[in-house]
Each structure stands twice: as C-alpha cells, then as structure tokens.
Amino acid sequence: MTKGDGRLWGARFGTGPEASAWALGVSTHFDVRLWREDLAGSRAHAAELARIGVLDAAGHAAIDAALVRCGELFAAGGFPLEPTDEDLHGAIERWLVEELGDLGGRLRAGRSRNDQIVSDLRLWSMEAADRVVAAIVGLQEALLDQAEAHLDWLAPGYTHLQRAQPVVLAQPLLAFVWMLQRDAERVRDARGRTDRSVLGSGAVAGQTLGLDPERYADALGFAGTIENSIDATASRDFVLELAAALAILATTLSRLGEELVLWSTSEFGFVRMGDGFTTGSSMMPQKRNPDVAELARGKSGRVIGSLTALLALVKGLPLAYDRDLQEDKEPLFDAVDTVLLVLPALAGAIGSAVFDRERLAAAASDDFALATDVAEALVLLGVPFRDAHERVGRLVAAAEEQGTALAGLADDVVAHAHPDLPARWAALLDPQAAVARRDGRGGTAVEAVRSQLSRAREAVATLT
Ligand code: ARG
Question: What is the number of alpha carbons within 13 Å of residue 219 lying toward its C-beta?
Fold first, then answer.
C-alpha cells in the first residue's frame, strides 16, 4: 500500500503497511455496524469542539450536517467503504475530508479511537441489552399463556429423568419463566454498569483542550461518566458481563430446547409443535423434526464460546488500550445475534405447542410416584420419617413383587405400614389429590399455581 491514501496515520512511516499486516488489522467489515453510535459520538464531539472554540459556528454546522448525511448514506446502504479504511472511524474521517476538505480533519482533536471505540461499544451494548430483554419477554409471554391454558393439567415431574412426582403442566412452564426472568435481570444489570460515558479520556491520559466529559454523557444519553481515563479505555468488563449474562441465558434456552426435543418424541409424546416450527426430513416422509428446539440447544455452544473467547482475550492485557481489544466485538456481536435468533423462534415454537392431555396424565398417574405422599401421610400420623420411608419402601417392594400398582395392594398388606392407612389409601394415591395437597407458595395446587402465575406476570411486566 502507498502512503497518503486517506488513512489516519502514516506521516512518520517510510512505507505503507504490508498487505498481510493490513489484512490482519482491518476491522471495518465488523465494526461498521457501530456506525450509528460512532456518528452520535462524533456529533457530540463536534459540539464540544465548537463549545471550546476549536470549531467555529460555521465549521460546526458544516461538520454536523455532513455527519447527518453520512448517517443517511449508511442507513441506505450507500456509504462507500474503501480497502484503505482500517476501521469505521477511519472510514468516516476519510469521507468527511473528501466532503469538507481540511475542515473534516479538525474533528479528531482531543479524541482517540481508543475512547471512541469504547463509547461506541457501550452505546451499542446498551441498545443490544434492551433488544435482548424485549425478546426474552416475548418468550416469557408465550410460556405464561401456555401455563395459563394448562393450569390444572396433570404432568409428570422428573428427577434424574425418572418419573418422580405428579405436577401440573403449568409448573415446568413457569419454571422457565422464572429462569428467564433472572436471565433478563442479569442482562439489565449488565446494562446498568455499561451506562457510563468515556469520551474525554483520549488515548490513555485524557486531553488538554478542556473537553467536558459530562457534556458528552448528556449528549449521548449516558447516566454518568467514568472516573478514570485508563479504566475508560482499557476496561471491557462491560462486554464480559453482557456476554456472561447471554451465555447463562443461552443455557436456559438450551434446556428449554432439550425439554421440547424430549417431550416431542414418540416415546414421551407430550407435545406437538406447529408445522411452522418443525421440519421434515429429505428422506423420511413421516418425520416431524424439532429443529428449532435442537438449534436452541446447539446455538448455546457458540454463545458460551463467545464468553470464553472474551475472557481469554482480556486476561493478561497490560494497561491501558491494546490492539487485542479490537477482538472484543465479533464475539459480542455474535452472542447478541445468536440469542436474538433463538428467542423469537423458541417463543413461536412454544406458542404453537399442542399438549397431549391423556399422555401427560397417564405419565403422571404412575402411583409409585405417590410413595412420598404416603410416607408424609405416615409422618402426619406420628411416624418418624426415617421409619415411614422404610415402611412405604416395603409396600413398594410388595407391589413390585405382585406386579401391581400401589393401588392394587390388599388392605391387610397396606395396614402393615399403619392401621389407619387402608381408609386413606385411595385418596392418597389419586394424582389430582396429590397435586392439590401441595397448596403452599411455590406448590402445584391449582390455586397456588394461579397466584404464582399472576406474580410471574407482574415480574415480567417490570421488564417492559
Ligand atoms: N479498531 C480499534 C478497536 O476496535 C480501535 C482503534 C484503536 N487502534 C489503535 N491503533 N489505537 O479496538
């Protein structure tokens, strides 16, 4: 490459950069998506330069109008990027100089790409956090609606993927609503700590021109300013924190995906997702595949990978800005893009789900699942739990030996465990009654779930 071709630096160098070095350093193809934030920062900066007298009123007006035009070009997809544009900041300055001549070269005073890129990325991250939270709410609403529609449907509750105790279908659906609630709150918390302006920090040590950090914060809508110019330019914990929140979110989405995969197999047969959210096989005409759910599970890997890449990137970097930090953007962008792809698709898949009441009830009605209820009934009759556990264990063994359900045991066998038990036996082994007994907060009784549902709706409403 030659010197003097519109790049931001080069005066002290004998030759232009080697092609391989340039190719390594170019970031324009990915940082171009920060154009809105970059132009907003530049407009705030032009206003500051005018306030301190580095730009006169006419110069400021011309630069500001050019920055607005530049935004229109980007919005229309018509901004002319050149191979000599090392990054977005350089591309915009080159374009300004082409438009305005020497005036365009005045904008750089008092600002470095080191503070500029952090300002851009903080603004972008905050907006991304808002979009992610809105998409989480979309999925929560789909789950809430399904929970409300299936408030009293019996479903099996599992531990170790073995049938454990009966629940109502709303309970696992609401479990995901609460997980997603915390996921959204983590994203929002990360956003709160990102909400600090850094312009005025310069390359590392601030600037000598009298630029006012508070005014940048006001102009760009930040809640406040960062206190230290080195912290401002060197820190990326706001990126790590958002990526960490997204990685945790991705694990929730992956687990929800896994439930859908499992529940839609012929072996479980609990749910069928709509045609628009399942796919066929190119070879096997009968297939209905849960690809959306599988991709929710599969895509979590890359979000976790983004967090890992970012942690490895930042670890061990000396203060303050290092060029390594240019590598912060692609993993963050990818993590945000990925969860924003998965969330609406999963919301649609959940919304389209049709549950099979009979199969769910049948799976919930295995009366061995009520052995714990029997043991707790014995506790209420005064038996120590350790002893009750053993007595019921013997009843389970007897039933297994006879090849019957617990309900099939003769009264005299049941009475071995406790003389009062035969009279209560049928009610104890009714799954509907078992679910209704759990009427405390967080339990599965319909009224408890109904009030949980209304608290869940209130919690979700705080996110919007
Ligand atoms: N493109 C760089 C980044 O994303 C910003 C430029 C800072 N470069 C520099 N040589 N100081 O981090």
Answer: 21
SS3 call for 159: strand
Q: How far is the CA of 117 from the centre of ligand 1 (A)?
A: 7
Protein residue closest via CA to atom 4 of ligand 1: 326
Tens-level pLDDT at each residue, the chain (464 residues): 555 577 777 777 878 899 999 999 999 999 999 999 999 999 999 999 999 999 999 999 999 999 999 999 999 999 999 999 999 999 999 999 999 999 999 999 999 999 999 999 999 999 999 999 999 999 999 999 999 999 999 999 999 999 999 999 999 999 999 999 999 999 999 999 999 999 999 999 999 999 999 999 999 999 999 999 999 999 999 999 999 999 999 999 999 999 999 999 999 999 999 989 988 888 887 888 999 999 999 999 999 999 999 999 999 999 999 999 999 999 999 999 999 999 999 999 999 999 999 999 999 998 899 999 999 999 999 999 999 999 999 999 999 999 999 999 999 999 999 999 999 999 999 999 999 999 999 999 999 999 999 999 999 999 99
Q: How far apart are CA 147 and CA 448, in angstroms?
A: 13
Choosing from 32, 85, 113 the residue with most ligand 1 atoms within 8 A of its CB, the one to mutate for a pocket test is 113
Q: How far is CA 370 from CA 335, 373, 374, 379, 424, in A?
A: 43, 5, 6, 14, 13
pTM above 0.85, yes or no: yes
Compute the distance from residue 17 Cα to the ligand 1 centre, in Å. Answer: 16
